[in-house]
Amino acid sequence: MGKRILMIEDNEDNRRILRDLLTSKGYDVIEAEDGIDGVSAAETFRPDLILMDIQLPGIDGYEATRRIKANSESWKIPIIVVTSYALSGDDVKAFEAGCDAYVAKPFSPRDILSKIREYLP
User: Where are the alpha helices (DSSP H) in 1-121?
Assistant: First the structure.
């Protein structure tokens, strides 16, 4: 069984691109379309890594990250923010919320895979 990655992303095209990329590299992918479902999936499936969008319906990626990191069962899961919401200071807000890394969209497949491999060698 491959490493399990939870992708919390509301855009179907972005999910498809990431899903195709990750599954082609042997990762098992779990998907959530909003922050609430993402937090629930993190608690239920205990993935090895989470890819988190910031702009999500319900609760945003910052709040979803805070909730995942506040849970004693999921706080160690690395969270990589993958977002087009890349204004000045947004990376700081993401790190303050508890994320471990930050990747701005658009990203190259090589860059995102390299970042994932830093946490899932």
Answer: 12-24, 35-45, 61-70, 90-97, 109-119
Cα within 13 Å of Cα(7), Cβ side: 25
Query: Domain segments of the chain: what residues?
Result: 4-119
Cβ neighbours around 1 below 10 Å, total: 5
Query: What SS3 class is residue 13?
Result: helix
Q: What is the CATH number of domain 4-119?
A: 3.40.50.2300
Provide the pLDDT for residue 91.
82
The two structure tokens encoding residue 28: 């098992």
**101 touches 111 (CB < 8 A):** no
Measured over the CA atoms of residue 85, residue 11, residue 77 and residue 62, the dihedral's sign is positive
Provide the b/e sequence for 72-109 (b: ≥16 CB within 10 Å): eebeebbbbbbbeeeeeebbebbeebbbbbbbeeebee
Q: For the purposes of burial, counting CB atoms within 10 Å of the CB of 110, is it exposed (0-12), middle (13-18) or buried (19 or more)?
A: exposed
Q: Which residues in the chain land under pLDDT 50?
A: none
